[in-house]
Amino acid sequence: MPNTNDTTTQTSANPVTDIGAGQVEQQLPPEAATADDQPNGRRRNRPAPLPNVGTIVQPTDRDELEMLVLHEDAKADLLSGLRSIEMRADLERIWNIGNVEPMQGRCILNFYGAAGTGKTRAALAIARRLGKPVYKVDYAAIISKYLGDTAKHITLAFMWAKELGAVLFFDEADSLVSKRADMNQSCATSINQNRNTLMQCLDQFNGVVIMTTNLFQNYDEAMLRRIAKHIEFKLPTRTMRKRILELHLPNRQRVEADILEVAKASKGLSGGDLKNVCLNSIYAGSTHEDPEQWKITQAILVAEIEKIKEAKEKHKRQQRTERQQRTERQQRTERQQRTERQRITGFAPESASNEAVELES
Predict the structure, then answer these.
(1) Do 272 and 161 share a structural domain?
(2) Ordered DSSP codes for 105-120
(3) What DSSP element (H or E) covers 203?
(4) Which residue range forms the structural domain that includes residue 195?
(5) What is the pLDDT of residues 243-253, one digit of tens each?
């Protein structure tokens, strides 16, 4: 009969790693000398790499601040934001600004305005001026259907920007900083958690954050005070449109057009629209078999301007039609619901009866 008090040493088929107090014993297969050699990745006992929730963009020579064609007030606000970082030592010496803003590298900017007015280019220009890369948030990686994951990814975005020494860039930021949801909505918990996490990260981040949006009116009011400057990007004036056209038509010897007249014809277009005008004109003027005959005429430029204007006008008409159809559907639904309630209660005044007749017809 075996002695139950005797202790014997059992030799396992698998070697066991040395363990200390409080450590968990780890079994290794015979072919694995160390935990890192474990063929089963789940058993290596190593933390999974943190997901990357953005892309790194390196500004180029095209992104010099001096090459931006902006309204003077917008450019002045940009330079003011830059001075808060570039001249921090002087601001501290003269104003003792550390008592007001202790974070030396903190600068949060919001660029708002119509599409194509230079908001993204301005973000790249600021990063270029500061000698930093841009960490552009990827919303496909940020947004998650699982409760809590989106908030974690927002925190990761700030962590990566800090690690890389980059300007954190939220393009089309209204998707993350829009108004918090009413708690009666099913998605309210997740949405509000994400907004609160973003605001906390902004409060703690000692770096440069730039947000852009076409829907500034959708921003949460609590977010506004956390942003140092809100800079509006307006549509270009005629003089600005002329300069943008000149910048995007580099070989002027092959351009047979009065650029000032073309700028007049392009009223209402953004800088992004004008870039497309120039590109499409270059393609349209490069159809001859002999490249030496390629050229851009004023007629080509004006024709491309009209195409873009027509497309934008058609888009507006479709939006108006869709809004009208939504309104009509909503009114029809409300009338049907009202009629059904009256039928159930047995109370049907003459006006309701008339509405029911209209619905049937």
Answers:
(1) no
(2) T-EEEEEEESTTSSHH
(3) helix 188-204
(4) 54-233
(5) 999 999 989 99
